[in-house]
Amino acid sequence: MTQSKTLKVTPNENGFGAEITGLDLSRPLPADTLEAVKAAFVRHGVVWFPDQPLDHDQLEAFTLQFGGYGHDPYIAALAERPHIVEVRREPDEKATVFGGSWHSDWSFQETPPAATVLHAKVVPPVGGDTLYADGIAAYETLDPALRRTIETLKAVHSAARPYGTKGFYAGEEGRKGMTILPSAEAEKTFAHPLVRTLADGRKTLFINPVYTLGVEGLDATESNAMLGRLFAHMLDERFIYRHSWRPNMLTMWDNRRATHNATGGYDGHLRLMHRTTVAGERPV
Ligand code: SIN
Predict the structure, then answer these.
(1) What is the 3-state secondary structure (H, E, C) of 65-90?
(2) Of the residues 67, 205, 222, 239, which has the fewest C-beta atoms closer than 10 A?
(3) Residue among 87, 163, 266 to mutate when testing ligand 1 (max atoms within 8 A of CB)
(4) pLDDT, tens digit, for every residue of 233-272?
């Protein structure tokens, strides 16, 4: 049977997040199947494929079906595999969980990655879920007056808080599983529309508490109040999907629309994933 005949997309009840089964991701997807997967990805924002054992070559080949690689700064990639980052936390690690605050990957870049692909190798027996928040649903349910106010605003993004030379990772101790590379480069800022318009015309909030420093044209008090109000709304539990992993599950999320947050709760156990990103376009 061809892969397009076996493909099954099972969305979450509210449409944000979907499981995709019936495919073998270790081989190139036929054109019609790839189009169906891309459509499900855009529609549901987070898609996951259980039971997909993949080696590095296969993970890279899967990623490249969706576009070129993104540029992943400030974390060391695997030796010999410049586009694969090992997201790893050792059983006795004391450092914080990598990615353990709400963010959208590399939103401080001029062209942030469209997608992140994460492939689970070792999943702890407890904890280790990833939370995803839907920026489209958050935008669409905002108070209409606030929606009008923010429609044309720009938000300033920077990697300084986590990755700057005085940032969080520069000052931390006890990290074992990953090599973080703090840099003065991370102090750079880049402004993006606070409300991002996606290729299909839908709008989404494009801000996150880790990388968004402020709102252009507002003073610090106004900007903090505006962002505080927006973050409280967009991270309301109505818009959040909690994703539980199994070994060999591949999950791909849309950074243009979703923010995510890696949870902990698995001290004493190894968690090991391999991650790639897919290049995106400049937000408009
Ligand atoms: C990340 O932020 O890319 C890590 C997500 C996770 O480990 O669940």
Answers:
(1) CCCCECCCCCECCECCECCCEEEEEC
(2) 222
(3) 87
(4) 999 999 999 999 999 999 999 999 999 999 999 999 999 9
Q: What are phi and psi of 215, to 5 degrees?
A: -115, 130
Q: Which atom of ligand 1 is nearest the CA belonging to 262?
A: 8
Task: Give CA–CA dist 171/158, Å, rounded.
Answer: 18
Query: Measured in angstroms, how far is the CA atom of residue 232 from the centroid of ligand 1?
Result: 21
Write down the pTM of the prediction: 0.97
For 187-200, write each residue's pLDDT tens digit: 999 999 999 999 99
Quote the tokens at residue 123: 């999943």
Q: What's the domain count of the chain?
A: 1
Residue nearest to atom 1 of ligand 1 (CA): 99
Q: Is 64 part of any domain?
A: no
CATH number of the CATH domain containing 117: 3.60.130.10
CA of 261 to the centre of ligand 1 (A): 7
CA of 128 to the centre of ligand 1 (A): 9
180 found inside a domain: yes
Q: Which of 207, 243, 200 is nearest to 224 (CA)?
A: 207
